[in-house]
Give the backbone structure.
Amino acid sequence: SDIEGAIESLEHFRTGGVVAVSCGPAGDEGLAIIAETRLRDRTEAHVRAEVSRVVYEHFSLTPKEIVLIYTPEKLPRTSSGKVRRQKAKESFLERSGVAAFTRNEVSSDIA
């Protein structure tokens, strides 16, 4: 999606490692970002602010939640390596969610 591409253009994110999904009950849906990051030299708060800024500047949306994954290839993928967005969304919404992607390498924040 365009949102995913905008986030992937930031230096701390991998191409093909970002998923933007809707979250929340019908009628009160929001945006959640699940992203594999190469976070190294900046603080996590700075990276979250970058994600929020780029999404707001390009799409006038503010993510309700940003999930950062520090280990590459933890998002569910097809045999050809493409992210399985629906599976990622289901795991996130079930809240096996954050833990389903990886155990001690995930940081989640509600905006």
